[in-house]
Amino acid sequence: MGLGTELLFIFVLAVVLLGPKRLPEILGRIARAKGHLEKITYSIKSQLEAEIEGKDSNDVRQQAAAKE
Fold this sequence. Notes:
Radius of gyration: 19 Å
Number of strands: 0
Shape: elongated
Strand content: under 5%
Distance between the termini: 41 Å
Number of helices: 3
């Protein structure tokens, strides 16, 4: 099976299992969780880069908070 066929199968299975009314709600939750994980990842990456460069960790936290 190709990638398109597999994605179509997963989509149809999700609609059948979750129903067309709950699917958008669940996809929204997944999208919000993904955004939250990206913020955490950015914060960790910034802190690690700052430690490597020798910056104060408080400055990095302020930059990360400003980016949010």
